[in-house]
Structures are given as C-alpha cells and as structure tokens.
Amino acid sequence: MAKAVEAKNNGENENGIIDLDSMTVKDLKSYATERDIDVPSKARKKDIIKLIKENEGPEIEDPSENSDSEIEEYDDDQELIEAFNDLENEDEIEDSDFEDVFVDDDDSNDEDLEVDSIQDSSTNSLDDCIKAVKSLPGVGEATLNKLIKSGFNSLEAIAYTPPKIIQEDSGLGEKSTAKLIKASMEKLGIGFKSGEEIWEHRKNIARITTNNKEFDDLLLGGIETGSIIEFFGEFRTGKTQIMHQLCVNVQLPREKGGLEGNALYIDTEGTFRPERIIQMSEALDLDYTKVLKNIVYGRAYNSDHQILLVKDSANLIKEKNIKLIIVDSLIAHFRSEYIGRGTLANRQQLLNQHLHDLQRLTDIHPDLAVCVTNQVSSKPDVFYGNPTTHTGGHIVAHGTTIRIFLRKGKGEQRIAKIIDAPHLPEGDAVFTVTEAGIGEP
Ligand SMILES: Nc1ncnc2c1ncn2[C@@H]1O[C@H](COP(=O)(O)OP(=O)(O)OP(=O)(O)O)[C@@H](O)[C@H]1O
Ligand SMILES: [Mg+2]
Fold first, then answer.
1. How far, in Å, is the centroid of ligand 2 from the Cα of 360?
2. Ligand 1 lined by 375 (C-beta under 6 Å)
3. Which is higher by pLDDT, 284 or 130?
4. Lesser CB count within 10 Å: N end or C end of the chain?
C-alpha cells in the first residue's frame, strides 16, 4: 500500500515505469509544469495525460498493459462524474456505429411473435454473463468496458478465444489477457471432460427443420445447433433459398421444428430478398411483418467487413435472441480479393480465422446454428478439390462441421448429399424450390 502511495506521487509504478493513470490531477499538473507543458487550469485528468503523452512520446507505459491495477482514483466527485459521463458517451458512439452496420427494422424492442419467438430462458441472460465477467480478478470498469465493447461479454467468450485475438480486439495487455483467460477457464471448469458430459452437451443440441422430410431425416431432424453447416454447390442449386427458409423456420415454435429464436443474415452478395421471406412466411401462415422484424441483416461489402460483422455479432446473440447465423456466401469476397497463387496462403489463413470466429460462437452458444454457403463450379477449383470426396483441401476442417453438397435435379428439384459428417447417415434427399420456399417433391 505504501508503495502504491509512493508510486502515485512520482508517477512511477513498482517497476520504475511512469504510470500517468495512477497519478492525481495535482501530481500530473506539477509533472507537466516541470516539463514545460502548458496545462489549462480546468483541464481534466485524461486531458492532462493526453497533453503529457503528446509531448513525451511513446516511452510512457500504455495504461492498457497495466489493467491489473486499474482501479482508477479520482480526485473529487466532479471528476468521477465526468469519467462516468465519458464512458456513457463512448457507449453512445459505439451504438450508433453499430446501427450502421446491421440493419434491424425493429427498434422498439422485439414485439413478441405469434411464431412465439424471442425470449430465451434456457441460458443465462446477458446481464448475468456480464456480471460473471465483472467478477473476474482484476476487472475494473475500464477493463470491463473494453471487453464488452469488443464482444467478450461472457466467461465462455473469454475462455474460448485465443489470447492474441482478445489482445488485438480489446486493447488489453498480454499479462492481463492471460490472467483473464485462466480465471474464466477455472470458473467454467474447463479441462478434460468425461464422455458422459459430452453426451449431456450433445443432448442439448436442437434442430431447425428444412421444410423437407427427407432432408430433415438425413440430418437426424434438421439443421443442428452447435455446428457450422456448409452448403456448397453450383450456382442456382438453392443455397440462398435454403438460407431464407431457415431464417423463417428458426422462428417457429419448437414443436413445429423451430428454435423460437431470431436470425442474423450476413449477406456478401446482395442476394437477400425480403420478398422471398414474405412468400415463405405466408406459405407457413406466419405474420411476415413479424418474421421480417426478427431477421437482423448485415451487408458485407468486402472480406474485412465480413470478418468484422461476425466479430460484432458476438454482442447481438444474447441481446437479440439470435439462434441462427447465416453467412451467404462465405467465400465470395475472399475469392475475388485474393487472386493468384501467391495470395492463396494468405487467403486460407484469413478464412481459417474467420471460420474459427464462427466456430467459437457455436462453442459459446451451443443453442446457435451457423450456416454458410459456398459456390463451387462443376470443375471444383483448387479451393476444394473434388467436393464429393474427402480431400485435405478443406478449409472447413473442424470436427463438428457438416458439409452438404447440393446439385440440380429435374425442374424445381434439388438434391442434397451430406459429406464428411461422421454421425449422419449416407444418402441423398430430394427437395424442391418453389415460390413457397423449400418443399417436398
Ligand atoms: N420466387 C421463386 N419461385 C420459385 N422458384 C424460385 C423463386 N426464387 C428462386 N427460385 C429458385 O431458386 C433458384 C435460385 O436458387 P438460389 O438463389 O438459392 O441459388 P444459389 O445456390 O444461392 O446460387 P448462387 O451460387 O448463384 O448464389 C432459382 O433458379 C429458382 O429455381
Ligand atoms: Mg446464392
């Protein structure tokens, strides 16, 4: 304690590094005066720090590295109030930025659907998750704020994310991040699990109907949660149509094959059509205005933007009761932006990270399904090898991922075949794409 007081007076922490954040306003002012830095008399703490940093350059320690001891001290109530106001203002800016990215018609809190959607009672509320993060050792208001803003709003999100990503996204230091991950893992009891525990986990997997009995049977009841499911095939094989249908079906009551949840649609090709949602909703006797309201839409304009949208979605899942995330198409931007042999490795690496971001969402939320589409030509390119055989070229390599190969049949008929899913039976399912959506032949 004596050390801390001492450190405050001369601005040095116990390692002899100058830590401006730990100094009082008075000390900061005299520190600045000693160095001929002009400080306006009414300047606030953070303004003084900024002025000093501008004058002194980078040798002053980054406060984010120091978040273990970040219980900030304020000189008086006024400064404390100002600090809180600053935090709130930052939040507002974040929110408005976010609105630009995701288009969600429903500003007025989700009105409950007749499709009986919206409230999720099976898992902890967002508030509970945030409380758990707050209870981790070393997490003060500032760290909490950084974590939440970068989408790490639950113990699971922290525990399952590689440290480097937490550091990059939140701005926290290496040591703080390592401590947070360790503490989150301990609290969650992550380590070896028995087969029985894994079975308990898998028993909670729920399924969304595809609207086609044979297709559902092939998938042991429908599109399962907790996995990334990849639909791949040539153009017009029904990938986008299936994605639309699932956005509607996820909202259905559980006894009708839904998850009573909402959908998040990340559209990279601009092919999302509300008109199709309306047609599909009407075919199921649903109120299409409510169905549309429960779809959160994000248009990704390039691969960076696509990656960002997925990272941002972490904060939406609880808040909007998202049970299905669509990325249609997963690959298109990457394919067009990274052309030529030399860039292939880079592309694969980015894509791999992107898939891991998606995979992590399903690890954190076992009641979430993630569906992605991927166009392949009849002559499968270097990207995939032969799509119907297992080759080492798959970018989607995670064990829980299911790949579904689609091809055209006669007229409106399409054929689905499961590839690479150890727990699913072999075989084809024939379905149709009509005005009413996915259906029986
Ligand atoms: N309103 C509709 N009524 C009937 N069939 C439709 C309707 N809209 C689309 N389809 C069918 O869906 C097909 C297009 O499928 P979809 O858009 O899912 O292709 P895709 O596999 O996503 O192709 P791409 O790789 O080009 O994105 C059309 O060829 C048509 O058969
Ligand atoms: Mg499509």
1. 25
2. yes
3. 284
4. N
Q: Answer yes or no: is the C-beta of 245 below 6 A from any ligand 1 atom.
A: no
Residue 219 lies in a domain: yes
pLDDT (tens digit, 9 = 90+) per residue, 372-384?
998 886 544 444 4
The residue count for the chain: 441
Residue in 231, 237, 241 to alter for ligand 1 test, most ligand atoms within 8 A of Cβ: 241
Q: Is 434 in the pocket of ligand 1 (CB under 6 A)?
A: yes
The packing angle between helices 141-149 and 77-101, to 10°, is: 10
Same domain, 370 and 414: yes
Range(s) of the domain holding residue 258: 207-439
Nearest CA to 239 among 230, 248, 247?
230
Measured CA distances, 212 to 144, 341, 415, 422 (Å): 45, 41, 11, 22
Residue 434 lies in a domain: yes
90 within domain boundaries: no
> Residue whose CA is closest, atom 8 of ligand 1?
435
List pLDDT tens digits, range 65-106. Answer: 443 333 333 344 444 334 334 433 333 333 333 333 455 444
